Amino acid sequence: MAQYACFDIGGTAIKYGLADELGNFTHTGHIATEVREKGVAQINPKIVQQIKAYQRSHIVVGVAIASAGVVNAQTGEIIYGGINFPGYAGTKIKAQVEAVTGLPCTVENDVNAAGLGEYWRGAGQGAQSLFCLMVGTGIGGCFILKGELVRGVSYSAGEIGYLQTDGTGSFEEIASVTALIKRVARAKQLKSSELNGEKVFALAKAGDKEAVQAIEAVIKIWATGIANICYVVNPERVVIGGGIMAQEAYLRPRLKAALQQSMLPLVYTKTTFSFASLANNVGLTGALYYFLQWQKAKDML
Q1: How far is CA 222 from the centre of its chain?
Q2: Do residues 93 and 105 make contact, with C-beta atoms less than 8 angstroms apart?
Q3: Burial (CB count within 10 angstroms: exposed 0-12, middle 13-18, buried 19+), residue 244
Q4: Main-chain phi, psi angles of 208, to 5 degrees
Q5: Under the phi-then-psi rule, with left for phi > 0, alpha for psi from -120 to 50, and beta for the rest, what region is 279?
Q6: pTM of this structure
Q7: Which domains, from first to last, does the chain contain?
Q8: How many CA atoms lie within 13 A of 130 on its CB side?
Q9: What pLDDT, in 10s, does the model give residues 194-232?
Q10: 166 bridge partner residues
């Protein structure tokens, strides 16, 4: 059976997996990205090594990659890496992988891939217009219209982390998980390194005043950002994902109330809000979906 090698390059880890054309994974794993320790030049060799390992025991017919940074999906090149990937801009992932493995390869931005994954196999199924919001160390987003990504002239459509909200910083500077942890750490006179998202929510569930207030403040900012997105593109559905959304039971009623307060009833009642459902495989799944769509378009030429 034909299989596809899929990768999701993040700041901490490179996730990988082997899947069929329906998005069913028969194997998944991960390795450390090690950008700070070893630089970006060692990322592609790690990917190639895993592809070759798969080729020894499976019929691999393509490589689908999702990556952090702004990606030119047509050329498979990184055009902006950001502060977490110094020196990444200009990396020609597609060309390098194809040259070494002989396999066709596609590269897509990681948040775009997450949105495509949710559209194909997750909480975005059936939506004609979908905005996917991913909240983690930073905040990213993408807009999908009738199954196609809206990319923008510089391939940066949906980069909502840079949105300005209350004048004190960008959306992700004041409402990411990193920002939430900093809020609680300041309030409790702790170092940020002593906390993480899971600990913050554990504190809140136990009734800790500072944690509860910090989460409420961040939820209000999320609601403002989501409302602004809905006023601009008016999507049928908004899917909210990222590691913090494992706290769905705690967040859902609070975010729903904040959205109702932040949005005009006409817009709120016509928009469906869902939490992402594909968890850790979302980027891998979306990377594969993009590869299959690219392959289909190529075969039609």
Answers
A1: 16
A2: yes
A3: buried
A4: -65, 120
A5: left
A6: 0.93
A7: 2-110+280-300 (3.30.420.40), 123-277 (3.30.420.40)
A8: 28
A9: 999 999 999 999 999 999 999 999 999 999 999 999 999
A10: none
